[in-house]
Structures are given as C-alpha cells and as structure tokens.
Amino acid sequence: MIPLAWLSGLNPAPLTPEQTERRQALPAVHSLDDTALNAARLVVVDVETTGLNVRRDNILSIGAVVIEGGAVDLGSQFERMLYRPNHKVTETVLIHGIAPGAVKQGMPAPDALLDFMEFAGECVFMAFHAPFDRRMLTRGLRQDLGHTLRHRFIDIADLAPMLCPEAKVGRGGLDEWQDYFNLSNSERHNAAADALVTAEIALILLSKARAQKIVTLKELNDRLVHWRRLRQSRSGRF
Amino acid sequence: MSKEDIYAQTGKIAVTQNVHGTLTFLLKYSPFNQMETSHLAWMVEHCQLRFFAKGESIIRPQDGPVQHFHVVKQGLVRGERMLSGQTAPDTTFEISAGECFPLAALIGERATRTEHLAGDDTFCLTLPRAGFVTLFSMSAVFRDFAMRGVSSLLDQVNQQAQTQAAENLGAQYSLQTRLGDLAVRAPVVCSSALPIREAVRSMHEASVGSIVIVDAGKRPTGIFTLRDLRGVVADGVVQMDEPIGNVMTPAPFHLPPSASAFDAALAMTSRHIAHICVVEQRQLTGVVSERDLFSLQRVDLVHLARTIRHAPRLGTLAALRTKIRHLVENMLAHGASSTQITHIITLLNDHTVCRVIELAIEEHGEPDVPFTWLCFGSEGRREQTLHTDQDNGLLFETDHPDQTEALRKHLLPLAALINKGLADCGFALCTGNIMASNPTLCLSRTEWAQRFEQFLHSATPANLLASSIFFDFRVVWGDSVGAEDMFAEVLRKTASNSLFQRHLAQNALRHRPPIGRFRDFVVSRSGAAKDTLDLKVQGLTPFVDGARLLALAHGIAECNTIERLRQLRVAGVIQPLDADAYEEAYHFIQLIRMQQHQIQDKEGRPFSNRIDPDKLNNLDRLILRESFRQAKRLQAGLAWRYQL
C-alpha cells in the first residue's frame, strides 16, 4: 500500500492543453424551465463506484442513455470504464463486478469524464437515487477536471412513488421498481444496463406524468419539491 | 478457477452492453434469430425504445404513411378496425413480444388500415422508415420475412414439425415432392410378346420389383410385379416361356408427373398396389414403387393396408394398430400435412372396420338381409387421429314395414359383435352409445329418413347435439346407393330449413376459442386441467361446426372439414382469403394435436387433447394464438350471418 495514497486525489495530474480546451468548450446547462418534457434532452445516468462513501470513493464506470422526443435512442449510448491507478479490490467488486483487470484497461479519468460531459451535452440528468450519482460526479469532475457540475438532476427514486402512489414496492430500490414494472435487466450493476432499465422506468413515468397533465420540466420539478416536503412533514410527525 | 479469474469473469465488459441485451432478446424470435448478427446489430443501433401506456394509440390510419417499423419488446398491441355497420371497432389481431408491425403498410408506403393500440403497458423498438428500407435491402432473411408476412411463419412451423419427427427416423424428404422428381430412373420396360423368363431376367438385372409392358408408342399396357411372379410360380400352370402379356395386370394404374408423392401413397394404400406408373401424354416416363416413397421407413403403407384387409383373426388386427402409429410418425417426418395424415388414418381405419365386419360375419353367419355400415362424426368426416372412438350405425332395406322389427332383432347381435370387435382393435366404445348395436341406430332406410326428419323439426338440445354427429355421414361397408339417396334428400331439406340452420348456428357458437380479448390464452383455472386448454373442443370444433353448418345450408354433400371449406370457397360463400386462413389455422391446430398424441403414445400416457400453451415454443404459441383468432372470426361471421 502506498502511503498517503488518499492524498493523490487532492493533487491530480495537471490537464493537458487539449483537455483544458475541451473542458472550456463543455456545453451549457439546461435548467428546469418551461421546456416540454417530450422536447427536453434527458440523460439517464448510472455510475458504478469503488464504494458508497461519497467523500472517499471513486467512479469506476459511467453508463448513460438519452431520452429525446419521448424515446430512448439505442444507437446513442454511453459507457466508459475509468482507469484508477491505486484501485484496490474491495467487497464492492462483488456488486458491480468490475475486475481489477478491467479497471486497468479503463480510460484515464479526465478523458472519460470529458467524453461523458460532451455526450451529455445541454441536458437534464435523471438517475435512480440521483443525489448519489450527482455527488459522485460532482467530486469526480472537480478532482479530475477542476470542473464544477451545474447540471440539474431529477431523481427517479422520488419520481416513481410520486407518480405511482398505488405501487407497493417494499424498499423502493431499483430492483423493486424494475420488478414492479416487469422490466428485465440484461446485466444488473452494469452501468449501461442499469441506465437503460432506469430509462425504461423513466419512459413509463413520463407517460404517467403526461396523463396527470404535467407538461414541462418546471411543472415536474415543482411537483417533486412539493411531494418531498409533504413526505418530510409526514415522517416528521411520527 | 482462481480469484483473479472469477473477477475477470464477472467483470467482463461489453462496450455495447445494451445493444447486446437487446440482441439477446431479439434472438429468441423469428426472423431475427435467422438474420446475420451484424445486420441485427445494425438494426438495434438504429432503433429507438418507446413506451405506450395501455390504451394509447400507436399508429392510426389518419396519421398518413407509416413512419416506423415496430417490434414489441414487452406488452401487447391490438389491431382495431371499424367494420361497416358496426358501432364498436373489432379487434382483428393481437401482437405480442417478439412480433413486429406494420409490414404491409411500410412496404406499400401507405397509412395503416388498422389502428394499432397498446393492449397493455407496452415497450416497442421502433426503426425509422429509412432504417427499415436499409435493413430490407441489406438482409435477405429480413426481406423474405417482410414480404411473406405470417405465411413464412407457418412454413417454419411445418419445417420444424418435420425436422422434429425426422430426428427420430433419419428420413428427409417431403410427401409434397412431385412424382416426376421422384421417378428419375428410366423404367424397366418390355413388349407383351417377351417370354416371362426374359422379362423376369430384366427385372433381376435391374434389381427392381416391377416391369411395365408397353406398346410401340411407349404407352403402358400392363404391369408385372414380383408379387405376380410369386402367383405364377405357385400356380405352376403357366410356362416360363409364355409371353409376359398372358400374365401381366392390364391397364395399370397411373398418375401424371405433377402428382405428389402423397397422391401416390394414397393410391397405393387404397388400391393395395406397390407400383404406380408415371405417365405423361399417355407415354410412360417412370415408375414409382412403394420403396421409392418410403425408402427408410419401418412400416410400409401398402403392406400394412393389405395385411389389415386379409387379417385372419381379430388379434392380428389389434396388433396391427401399433403399426399405424409408426406410420403416423413416419408421415409426420415426411412432411405430410395433418389432413393427409388424418386421411390415411381414416383409410386404414376403414380397412380395419371392413375386415372386422367380415370376420364378424364369418363368426356369426351371413345375415338374412344385406346391410350397410354407416359412420358418423370424425370418422364420417375422414378426420380420425390415433385417439378415436366409435360413432356408427347400421342401415338395412325392407319393403315391408311390419318386417322391420324382426330384421332389427336379427341384425342386432351381429352389430354388437362388430362393435365389440372394433373395441378390441382399439376403437373405444362410444360413451354416448352412438353405435350400431343400439336398437335406435340399427334402422331401416325409412326409419333413418324419419330420424333425420326429427332432427330437422324439433330443435331440442339433444337433437342439436346429435345433429353435429349425424350430419357428418359416410358409408364404410355395404351397398351405398340407398343410404346416399336418403342422405341427399336430408341435405335438400336442410338447405331450405332456415330455422334449423339458425339452431345449428347457435350450437356452433357454444365452444369459444380459448383466447381472451386482451390476454393471451384462456386456460382452465383449477382442477386436473389447470393451465391447459382443449385443442379439439375449443380449437377444432368451431371450424368443424362452422363448416358443417355452411355446407348443409348450401347443399354441399362433402363431410370433410377442409373439403367443405374449399367447396364453400368455390361456391362464393366464404371469401378466398378467409377460406385459406381458416384452412391453415385448422391444419395447424390439428398438427399440434397430433404431435402431442405421438408424444403421449410414446410415453405410454393416455391420449389427451389438453395442452398447456406455455409449454409450446414461441413460434408455435404465436401461430396457435393466430389460429384460434381465425376460429373466432369464423364464429363472428356465423353470428352475423344468422343474426345471433
């Protein structure tokens, strides 16, 4: 074990001029405005990490699919494995199944993250348990690229119970919702496969939103904020 | 496996994980499982995934030319069409996972004629029109599929059935083969003046079982076979230097080269001959022998028919039944259709019935009055399978009504003997007692006519039920003229009795095909039959009842369901497209049923018509559902015609 390995995160290798140029050209952020849901570019993302600690663990792979015009485009998907020089094999390998060998073949983190942000473009992100993915991406982008993530996130884990109050899904994890909607996952804990199944859930939820007369991104977000507040006040009472 | 290897295994990454996942899904279905992987991957990469909530419209006629090719990934899509004079739209088809739509409209670059709705929450893969066109030109398999639509699926099912049966036998050719393609060897021929010895030498040298005697114009005038030779030698009367013309069988049976191997098999079975001349424009072009037809088979058809016809004892007949089972397996392997097989089974059963009657007469003594043996139901329709029971009756002639009772008394013991003999041969006794030994079914011609009259004029449930059996009527043994005259009269009366027809129509709607409006199959919910449906009662009976009613209503004397449908098509009663669809559907359900019987027989289980649709493969399940839907359409047509 290399002493002070954890410090390496604080002093990332400087970016090449080319990388800096790419970072500066990264597209703007799409706000949660009056854009219609079926016109917005929604990028459903899933990250697999070395662990669950958002302060210390690192991103190992990123998977993403795009919902545009109300459909998932199967031809435009994103999947990258990230190279982590000091990656240690821990129990999480049993969850995401990414072997040390595969990590070694991964792409340098700055390039992978630049690729991802360019792929995502001017979009709103969606993810299952979005705060986790957002914080992992935020720290990764800051450490490896010196870039501040400003993209907005919609959390499918909240959207689902809000739009399907009748559903009884136990813990309400991705597995439970996946089963509830009868979806199949080609490889659970593969970032791309999880992103796709999350996107399928999103398609169903967007259709439900439409049925409930929720038309724009803003309306959707307002409803979510309201719903979360309601949930907090309820749980606060007990 | 080391720890490192396990990690490497579990960590195997595919850059195109999701494309791969979708590929895996598509590979379960036709035509995708036959397409080149690169073409399929191209398709997936150009597809979008869309969700349609239950009830949502996917494509509508008013949307203009269709813009996307759809594959159902999950869920169910319904096709609804508004028929003239209806207030509610009619579900014309259902499309489930792995199936695609709309093909005709995409190829025709037009709007769809049917509204496609999500029958359930549904995910579809959609390929834009431009992608469809590229795929169409790129993949021959896909092009074939798109052009042929559902009929190509049916072909595959037939192929599948053949290979499955062929696996047991190692035989591989179709009974649909043209005789011209089968009889390729130059036939062994001679003139009628050739001495027998010389003719036999020619046969021996060519190692064939027959020689055809031709005239100067190559026209066949006779045939001489090894069997004939056996007769000649056994008799010992004829000298071997006599001309072959003295001992040949003159005017040999012949077929044109365009006839099928099945036609030949049928002729051989019914005529007890093992050689058939192939004749084109009156000239001999070849000879097809039984061995050419079934070179690899374990049982031979002609021999079997002959053995049945000459069986010395009941025991021999009963033993021959197992050979019929082998034969069915053989025929499935040789690509015979279900109709062809039921036809052959009926033919062999007829031989068995005749032989049982002859043996019974030998035992009982010649009766004082000639009689005619009638059969009804599936035997009457020539649609028997291995699983069959007795439906028969006896008709006798008498000029004096006061003798009728006495004659009946005289004939009944013989009828009982025949029924018992048939039971010994594996024809189960009829549980409804529709058998000649029943005094109410051992009748004079006048009584039979009265009996049918009763059916026509009193529509009790029992009478209607009986009608569905007795109106499939055929003579198996004895003089047929009287019986057929009587039935022709019945037919004439039926055609003009619209009330009776209406009752029959009601009866024909009793058994609903086992598909729901939105769901897949409707199966039994509990009991021993849980999760199964009845292929015969729920699948075949709607076709049989419908075809019978329409045939009776239009004076068609034919009793076979497929023949009835064909004649109804010719008479313009059923639209050609519908008739074809009904026929295909009927064939298919019958095929599935026969395959199941073969398996049950092999495993020593009792025959059953109940099947669990979940145990079928995807393709079969798909087509079975489509077949049931055709049955539903036939019934809807009847309901409309008779305003029920």
UniProtKB/TrEMBL annotation, chain A:
CDD domains according to UniProt: DEDDh
GO molecular function, one term: DNA binding
SUPFAM superfamilies, per database record: Ribonuclease H-like (SSF53098)
Transmembrane portions of the chain: none
Exonuclease domain: residues covered: 41-211
UniProt xrefs under Pfam families: RNase_T
Enzyme Commission number(s): 2.7.7.7
Claim: Nuclease is one of the keywords in the record: yes
Gene Ontology process terms (BP): DNA replication
Keywords, sorted A to Z: Exonuclease, Hydrolase, Nuclease
UniProt catalytic activity: DNA(n) + a 2'-deoxyribonucleoside 5'-triphosphate = DNA(n+1) + diphosphate
PANTHER family: DNA POLYMERASE III SUBUNIT EPSILON (PTHR30231), PROTEIN NEN2 (PTHR30231:SF4)
The protein's name in its UniProt record: DNA-directed DNA polymerase
Taxonomic source organism: Halopseudomonas xinjiangensis
UniProtKB/TrEMBL annotation, chain B:
Keyword terms, alphabetized: CBS domain
Pfam families listed in its UniProt record: CBS, DUF294, DUF294_C
CBS domain sequence ranges: 183-242, 248-306
Record-annotated Cyclic nucleotide-binding domain positions: 31-136
A GO molecular function held by the record: [protein-PII] uridylyltransferase activity
Protein name as catalogued: Cyclic nucleotide-binding domain-containing protein
The organism of origin for this protein: marine sediment metagenome
